[in-house]
Design a protein that fits this description.
TIM Barrel; MTA/SAH_deaminase; alpha/beta; hydrolase; Amidohydrolase family protein; Metal_Hydrolase; eight-stranded parallel beta sheet; Urease, subunit C, domain 1; six-stranded mixed beta sheet; 18 strands; Metal-dep_hydrolase_composite; binds zinc ion
Length: 469
C-alpha cells in the first residue's frame, strides 16, 4: 500500500516533534521510501518519484491522540449533561445512552470521530472503548479496527470495561451489566491474539483498560489485570484524578491518594498512562514521574466539565511522559487534535497566570506565557503520544522514522498575517486544510478530501442517528 518513493517538496516550515535544537527543520524537502523517511533537506526529485508540492504549507508529524471514546461522537452537546460536572454528567449522558447504541449507530459514531480526527491531521488514534456488556449483539472492537483500517489510520484499542458498577449504574438495564473478570480478561486475550502488533510501527495495538481504577474493579482484580497485561505484553490505560471526587473516593475507600492506590496495585510504570491527572498532590506527581507513568492531557474535556487544568509543566519536569487526548465527544464538542492542542497551549499559560500574585502578596511573576511553547505542545501531541503508546517508530520527523506526516495548507484568512507560519495550526487553531496526510507513507487524505468519503452523506447519517437516539 505504500508509495515506493515520495517527495514532499518546498515546505515553508517543518516542526519535528523533537525537543530543543532539533524542534524545527529547515527542510524544505522530505523523502519517503517504502513508508519511511529516508532524507530531509534540499532534495532534487528523482526519476519516477511522486512529488507532493508543499509550497506555502506547514509540515508537522501526524498527531497521536492517546485518549478518546469514539462511540460518544453521536452525543455532542447533549442537553441533559451539557452543564453538569463529571459525576452527574456520566449518568446524564454517556451511561444513559449506552443501551441505545446498536451496530449501525456505534459504527457511525466511530466513523465520525475518526474522520474528524483524520481531518485535523491525526495519524494514530487510541480509543478507550468501555461499551461492553455480557451478551452484546455486536463486536464493537472489530468495528473500531475496521473503521480505522478503512481510513488508513493506526488504531490502538484500549479495551475498557468493568466488573463492578458505580451507584449510578446500579439501576440500569441488563444491557449495561458489568462483565465477570474472566469475561474481561479472556476478551483482552482474544483481542491481543487477533489484532495486537508489538512492533514500534504497529498499525494495530491492544491495551488493557478497565474504565477507572477506583470504581470499575476490586483492588485485587486490578492487580490481576496488571499482571495479565504484562504477561500478554500489552500496555495499561485508564482514567485517573479527573476531578476532586477521585481524591475523595480514594481517601474514603482506601485511605490513600489515587496515585498511591494505583502504585500499591501495580498500576504505575512506563507501560501505563492515565487520562486527565488534573488533581494531584506533590507526592503523586513525584511518584508518577519516578515510575515513568504517562498522561493523556485532555484540556478541552477538563474545561467543558469544569474539572480543572492539569499541571503539565510540573508533570513533565518530574519525568512524566506527556501526551494529548481529545477524550470523548460527549464532553468535548471539538474532538480534533488542532482544537485540542490549541486549547492546551492557551490553558497551560492561563493556568500559570492564575497562580500570579502581586508583590504585596509575595508574588514574583506577571503571568504565565512561559508555561508552554508551540513546540512543546506539538511535541506532546506527537512524540509524547508515541512514547506513551510505546510506538517509537512514529511521532517525530527524522530520518528512519515512519512517514506519519500532516501537511497543512494555510489558505484561510485566520492564518494570514502571521510572522511565523510554523506556529499557525496550533496558535491560530481553527481547521487548516490538509494538503495531505500520510500514515506509514500512504496518502490517506489529499487536497482536504478523504478518498471514497462523502462528508455530506456522513452528516446526514449523523443527523438521522441523533434523532433515533
Ligand atoms: Zn475519557
Amino acid at each position: 500500500m505504500t508509495q515506493a518513493s515520495l517527495l514532499i517538496r518546498n515546505a515553508s516550515a517543518i516542526l519535528t516533534g523533537l525537543r530543543g535544537e532539533g524542534e524545527r527543520h529547515a527542510g524544505p524537502d522530505i523523502r519517503i521510501v517504502d513508508g519511511v523517511i529516508t532524507a530531509m533537506g534540499a532534495l532534487p526529485p528523482q526519476a519516477g518519484e511522486r512529488v507532493i508540492d508543499a509550497r506555502d504549507c506547514v509540515v508537522y508529524p501526524a498527531w497521536v491522540n492517546t485518549h478518546h471514546h469514539l462511540f460518544q461522537s453521536l452525543l455532542k452537546g447533549e442537553p441533559q449533561g451539557l452543564n453538569l460536572t463529571l459525576t452527574p454528567w456520566l449518568a446524564a449522558t454517556p451511561y444513559r445512552f449506552r443501551a441505545s447504541f446498536d451496530e449501525h449507530s456505534f459504527r457511525l459514531a466511530a466513523r465520525i470521530g475518526l474522520v474528524e480526527l483524520l481531518r485535523s491531521g491525526s495519524g494514530t488514534v487510541a480509543d478507550h472503548n468501555y461499551l461492553y456488556y455480557p451478551g452484546m449483539p455486536y463486536d464493537g472492537s472489530a468495528i473500531l479496527f475496521e473503521e480505522a483500517e478503512k481510513l488508513g489510520l493506526r488504531f490502538v484499542l484500549c479495551r475498557g470495561g468493568a466488573t463492578q458498577t458505580r451507584q449510578l449504574e446500579s439501576e440500569l438495564p441488563q444491557a449495561l451489566r458489568p462483565e465477570s473478570l474472566d469475561q474481561f480478561l479472556s476478551d483482552c486475550e482474544r483481542l491481543t491474539k487477533r489484532y495486537h502488533q508489538a512492533a514500534p510501527d504497529a498499525m494495530r495495538r491492544v491495551v488493557m483498560a478497565p474504565t477507572t481504577p477506583l470504581y470499575s474493579m476490586s483492588p485485587e482484580e486490578l492487580r490481576t489485570c496488571a499482571r495479565e497485561a504484562r504477561r500478554l505484553g500489552i500496555r495499561l490505560h485508564s482514567h485517573l484524578s479527573e476531578t476532586v471526587e477521585y481524591q475523595n473516593a480514594a481517601r474514603v475507600k482506601y485511605d490513600r491518594s489515587p496515585v498511591a492506590f494505583c502504585g500499591e496495585y501495580e498500576w504505575l510504570g512506563p507501560d501505563v498512562w492515565f487520562a486527565h491527572l488534573v488533581k494531584l498532590n506533590r507526592d503523586e506527581i513525584g511518584q508518577l514521574g519516578a515510575t515513568g507513568t504517562g498522561i493523556a492531557h485532555c484540556p478541552q474535556s477538563n474545561g467543558r466539565l469544569g474539572s480543572g487544568i492539569a499541571d503539565i509543566p510540573a508533570l513533565e519536569a518530574a519525568g512524566v511522559p506527556v501526551s494529548i487526548g481529545v477524550d470523548g465527544a460527549a464532553s468535548n464538542e471539538a474532538a480534533d487534535m488542532i482544537s485540542e492542542t490549541h486549547a492546551a497551549w492557551l490553558m497551560q499559560r492561563a493556568r500559570r497566570g492564575e497562580l500570579a500574585r502581586s508583590r504585596a502578596e509575595g508574588g514574583v511573576r506577571e503571568g504565565g506565557a512561559d508555561a508552554a511553547s508551540i513546540e512543546d505542545v506539538v511535541r506532546w501531541g506527537t512524540a509524547g503520544g508515541a512514547a506513551v503508546l510505546g510506538m517509537n517508530a512514529i511521532g517525530t520527523l527524522e530520518v528512519g522514522k515512519a512517514a506519519d506526516i500532516a501537511i497543512y495548507k494555510l489558505d484561510d484568512p485566520r492564518y494570514f498575517g502571521l510572522h511565523d507560519i510554523a506556529i499557525a495550526p496550533v496558535a491560530s487553531g481553527g481547521r487548516p486544510s490538509l494538503r495531505a496526510l500520510l500514515v506509514a507513507g500512504r496518502v490517506v487524505a489529499e487536497h482536504d478530501a478523504i478518498p471514497d468519503l462523502d462528508l455530506a452523506e456522513l452528516g446526514a447519517a449523523a443527523r438521522a442517528a441523533v434523532k433515533a437516539l
